[in-house]
Amino acid sequence: MSKTSLREGQMIISLPESCLLTTDTVIRSYLGTYIAKCQPPPSPLLALCTFLVSEKHAGDQSLWKPYLDILPKAYTCPVCLEPKVVNLFPEPLKAKAEEQRARVQGFFSSSRDFFSSLQPLFSEAVENIFSYSALLWAWCTVNTRAVYMKHGQRKCFSPEPDTYALAPYLDLLNHSPDVQVKASFNEKTRCYEVRTASGCRKHEQVFICYGPHDNQRLLLEYGFVSIQNPHACVYVSAELLVKYLPSTDKQMNKKISILKDHDFIENLTFGWDGPSWRLLTALKLLCLEAEEFTCWKKILLGDIISDTNEKRSLVIAQKICHYFIEETNAMLQKVSHMKDEEVALINQLTLVETLWTEELKILQASDEILNSLQMPFR
Ligand SMILES: C[S@@+](CC[C@H](N)C(=O)[O-])C[C@H]1O[C@@H](n2cnc3c(N)ncnc32)[C@H](O)[C@@H]1O
């Protein structure tokens, strides 16, 4: 909460460099000599995660205890959710969630040798300290809370970018898609500074913006969904587009390869303001009659080819929208049923339910917009 009203450009928080937890902190610590000796060199992310796990293990002895104590004990990023809950995600998110799980599991198995090399530092077996669940907790801590701060590459680390800084206090700020902030490390004051670009009223919660992320991305990276998120959208796959077009179209394969070549096959979405320009453009191209086909370049530039083409693409967009509404309602029923059956998973299921509920609202808004877009052709 802000104690005073904040005007545009005013500072929300300024955190001195000494309070930041970065790979510099790790190198200066007892881990430094072990990192320098390690072959192959650990990644900056592994160094940071190792430090977090090790300091948590140190308990009262850790200088970072006050910070570690306020960190969440558990996270809701997909990698932490039950596979049967991830299975209820929309397809594109499910694929990314599975990728995330495989990445974190790979991160753990490839880090074991490094953890073994740290045994002289601990009286307890390193396998017990640097367990999968401990590393998962540290990975989620960095993934959901670190701010961007670029460090030059150092020989003791592998060449992955070193861009994370944990920023106590600053990382208590929640996300709102409706605010704008400027956040960066100020080389002159040597502080990480966050200024509001949209102002904040006295005694209101101060929000920052993590980026113009849609809800699937917020859930994947931060483990939450934002209600009425202006960037939220529903993704339409190429396979689904084709399902609603006549299978007799001899030019379909050619049309698909044009869409692929011109990067129009992905990021086709429905949003609060209806089908995206990209989705409608892809549909217009796919709906071209044989005699109109030579005009495909004009479509990609945004030109109108014919009333028939406009109308057909809107009709198909609406059919796809109706299909998604049906699917979304079915998923919501399934989730609601699972909430009754699997009481222990209620929080995880509520998260998925919120995602689907927001998608349903977007689709209903899109359906209405599609109705009005078709008016001139009726
Ligand atoms: C940088 S932390 C923000 C502080 C966090 N609320 C806490 O108390 O530790 C980011 C995490 O906060 C939560 N969060 C941030 N903004 C949120 C929002 N608008 N709604 C729900 N959860 C949010 C998510 O769990 C996210 O991973």
UniProtKB/TrEMBL annotation:
CDD domains: SET_SETD4 (cd19177). Belongs to the class V-like SAM-binding methyltransferase superfamily. SETD4 family. The gene is LOC111155770. It comes from the Eukaryota. It catalyses: N(6)-methyl-L-lysyl(4)-[histone H3] + S-adenosyl-L-methionine = N(6),N(6)-dimethyl-L-lysyl(4)-[histone H3] + S-adenosyl-L-homocysteine + H(+); L-lysyl-[protein] + S-adenosyl-L-methionine = N(6)-methyl-L-lysyl-[protein] + S-adenosyl-L-homocysteine + H(+); N(6)-methyl-L-lysyl(20)-[histone H4] + S-adenosyl-L-methionine = N(6),N(6)-dimethyl-L-lysyl(20)-[histone H4] + S-adenosyl-L-homocysteine + H(+); L-lysyl(4)-[histone H3] + S-adenosyl-L-methionine = N(6)-methyl-L-lysyl(4)-[histone H3] + S-adenosyl-L-homocysteine + H(+). Forms a ternary complex with TBK1 and ZNF268; the interaction with TBK1 is ZNF268-dependent and leads to TBK1 monomethylation. SUPFAM superfamilies: SET domain. It is found in: Cytoplasm, Cytosol; Nucleus. This is SET domain-containing protein 4. Its main location: cytoplasm. InterPro entries: Rubisco_LSMT_subst-bd, Rubisco_LSMT_subst-bd_sf, SET_dom, SET_dom_sf, SET_MeTrfase, SETD3_SETD6_MTase, SETD4_SET. GO terms for cellular component: cytosol; nucleus. One of its GO terms (biological process) is inflammatory response. Keywords: Cytoplasm, Inflammatory response, Methyltransferase, Nucleus, S-adenosyl-L-methionine, Transferase. GO terms for molecular function: histone H3K4 monomethyltransferase activity. Residues 1-211 form the SET domain. Its EC number is 2.1.1.364.
